[in-house]
Specification:
- By secondary structure, the protein is of the alpha/beta class.
- A hairpin with a 5-residue loop joins strand 1 and strand 2.
- Helix 8 runs parallel beside helix 9.
- The longest helix has 21 residues.
- The radius of gyration is 24 Å and the shape is globular.
- The N terminus is likely disordered.
Length: 463
């Protein structure tokens, strides 16, 4: 089914002032499996389906905007990461990407560990039955209350992020009569090829303790000297949405060098090394992410080679994929409200969500794909900017994309690869109600995080 086209903006990307596309896709009706959850496809009527359920039915039952998460895809990615690294390594799902009690149960059932970075994430993990010993606690400024609870319940590791925290965790552990397993997070001076705000291993940023100037070595001395701590290893995380393994190679080399210095000075070989997460996913067809087995093989080879050169036993490796697991498994469904052509520039397509359900475009200049999913169309491609309903000119969902020229109010659009950092960073800007997260599997859909209501907003407003 198609509709007659309305007057629109330009059809070709060569007039695009600042975009990244060079030409529209050959067929706008094709849903590229690289960026969509594994069970997403079009039915005979042309609408998109996920796990066998059409988007029209989903929109009618759950409303828009809403996040729809392919549970089978999520579980399959968990298994792929666990299989890739095997029993001699640890995979910690980075809960900051997206966390709910249902997700915690899936992780537990699929054998993954969990990385949390706040008291709220820890509470969610524990309330859903994740064993405390399979939880790692991160954060650059953990409160004493958060540390006390983490130590009390017996989390498997706390990642120490500052000299003050080394003392703080040791003191709290001693006061509770415990010896807490810890790692020290180091910044290794690697400039990851990613956005400034999600690069985390260069020295001028808030995370970790720098290798430069001997600070990390001093942190190791202090951690080894305190009775309340059991130092089990070194942690390094170089950034997010990374495709190039070169940064991991430099990071591993520098971390292994630190392990060798620890052995030489203290006579101790620390048994673990955590290389963090940050592996990229496909947000657009131009992205080319690596598969978990390729990543595992590369990281293991890097660490083994560096340890052999330093005459060290190869430590147990940990990794922390978050986005790489949940990101591709979900899409956000919107309804078009207005279509506004600007002659000679582009057409603005406004949807019923925006920066309150996906801040990443405004925050990181993130790129996304978008498709008309309630129907197919034979109309020619039209250059559009998909924007939200908020009172900000930067309220952009997809900066530059092509949609059929007959897109119209009432159509359903979907943005794939929104499983990570969309619901978890969602806000109530303009008193918007945060969308639900709906899990779909085997022809059934169920809410795992419900849509907020006006009553929820007013309940917190005590007047």
């Amino acid at each position: 089914m198609s509709r007659s086209a309305h007057p629109a903006g330009p059809r070709h990307a060569d007039v695009l002032p600042e975009g990244h596309y060079t030409a529209p896709p050959a067929d706008l009706n094709v849903l590229d499996p690289k960026v969509w959850a594994r069970t997403v496809r079009r039915d005979e009527q042309g609408q998109a389906t996920v796990a066998g359920i059409g988007v029209a039915r989903l929109a009618e039952e759950f409303g828009t905007p809403a996040y729809f998460l392919d549970e089978d895809d999520f579980r399959a990615r968990c298994r792929a990461w666990a299989d890739a690294f095997g029993p001699d390594a640890d995979v910690f799902y980075a809960g900051k990407a997206f966390l709910s009690r249902a997700v915690v149960r899936w992780l537990h059932e699929e054998g993954l560990n969990l990385d949390v970075c706040s008291g709220g994430e820890l509470s969610t993990a524990l309330s859903a039955g994740m064993p405390a010993e399979r939880i790692a606690f991160h954060g650059n400024n953990k409160s004493e209350e958060e540390i006390r609870r983490a130590v009390s319940v017996g989390v498997g590791r706390i990642v120490l992020d500052s000299f003050q925290e080394i003392v703080r965790v040791a003191h709290i552990a001693q006061s509770l009569g415990k010896r807490q397993r810890v790692q020290i997070r180091v910044t290794v001076g690697v400039e990851a090829h990613t956005h400034e705000f999600i690069a985390t291993a260069h020295e001028d940023q808030k995370f970790g303790i720098a290798l430069a100037g001997g600070q990390a070595a001093e942190a190791v001395r202090r951690a080894l000297s305190l009775d309340g701590l059991e130092l089990i290893g070194i942690h390094s995380h170089i950034g997010s949405q990374i495709f190039d393994m070169a940064g991991f190679e430099v990071s591993a080399r520098r971390v292994v060098q630190l392990l060798a210095e620890v052995r030489d000075e203290h006579g101790v070989e620390l048994p673990e090394i955590d290389l963090g997460g940050g592996l990229g996913i496909a947000y657009t067809s131009a992205d080319d992410p690596r598969e978990p087995h390729d990543i595992a093989k590369a990281l293991k080879e890097i660490v083994t080679r560096e340890c052999e050169a330093a005459r060290l036993a190869t430590p147990r490796i940990s990794v922390e994929p978050g986005r790489a697991i949940v990101g591709p498994t979900a899409f956000t469904l919107y309804e078009v409200g207005t279509v506004k052509p600007l002659e000679g520039l582009r057409t603005y397509v406004s949807v019923d969500g925006g920066m309150s359900d996906n801040i990443r475009t405004a925050l990181y200049d993130a790129e996304y794909s978008v498709s008309l999913v309630s129907r197919t169309s034979d109309a020619e491609p039209m250059l559009v900017r998909v924007v939200g309903k908020h009172c900000e000119s930067g309220d952009i969902v997809v900066r530059d994309a092509f949609l059929p020229a007959d897109v119209a109010p009432g159509d359903l659009l979907a943005v794939p690869a929104t499983g990570a950092y969309c619901r978890s960073m969602a806000s109530n800007y303009n008193h918007a109600l945060r969308p639900p997260v709906v899990a779909v599997r085997d022809g059934e859909a169920r809410v795992i995080v419900r849509r907020e209501t006006e009553e929820d907003l007013l309940r917190l407003d005590v007047g």
